[in-house]
Amino acid sequence: MSTTIETPRSPYSREARTSVKRGVNWEKWGWIYMRVSGVLLVVLIFGHLFVNLMVGEGVDALDFAFVGGKWSSPFWQVWDVLMLWLALIHGGNGMRTIVNDYASTRLTRGIFKSAILAAVVVLIVLGTLVVFTFDPCPAGAPADLLPSFCPAS
Asked: Where, by residue number, does the polypeptide cross the bilayer (predicted)?
């Protein structure tokens, strides 16, 4: 018994290409990005898991104070933001590839790719703002709502 897999309906088929090269080959750079970001993400994620789960008291130490202390260091802010950016762009690029392969019309592809781009941009902006503006001890907050490690206001 043999199974035949239908060819994806990609607008970028070999027959559509001409022998004249025009501009930047975005598909090639997207492919390279996926490989490089994948390797970097493996390193970043396993480093993240090792520090959060294995070093110190392990999973029992994960709480608001742990995150507050970690994000007070510029090193961990950059680490987490780099992980966020790489993961979101990597996932968005993968979704873009799926849309290119399976969306049947140019309008559908445009709508889906625009929605993916909007979601990735919004999540990157919000995530970056959270990491760099995080303050576990906000000024003017009631003392009973502050964590125990914050000086009383």
From this structure: 32-55, 75-93, 114-134
CATH number for domain 29-135, candidates 1.20.1300.10, 2.50.20.10, 3.40.50.1580, 3.20.20.60: 1.20.1300.10
CB 26 within 8 A of CB 96: no
21, exposed or middle or buried, with CB in 10 Å at 0-12, 13-18, 19+? Answer: exposed
The long-range contacts involving 92-96, CB below 8 angstroms and separated by at least 24 positions, are 92/116, 92/117, 92/119, 92/120, 93/30, 93/33, 93/34, 94/34, 96/30
Q: What does pTM read for this prediction?
A: 0.77
93, 53 contact by CB (below 8 A): no
Radius of gyration of the chain from its Cα atoms, rounded to whole angstroms: 22
Cβ(8)–Cβ(97) under 8 Å?
no
74, pLDDT greater than 80: yes
Q: Give the torsion sign (CA, 44, 50, 53, 56).
A: negative
Contact (CB, 8 A) for 125 and 88: no
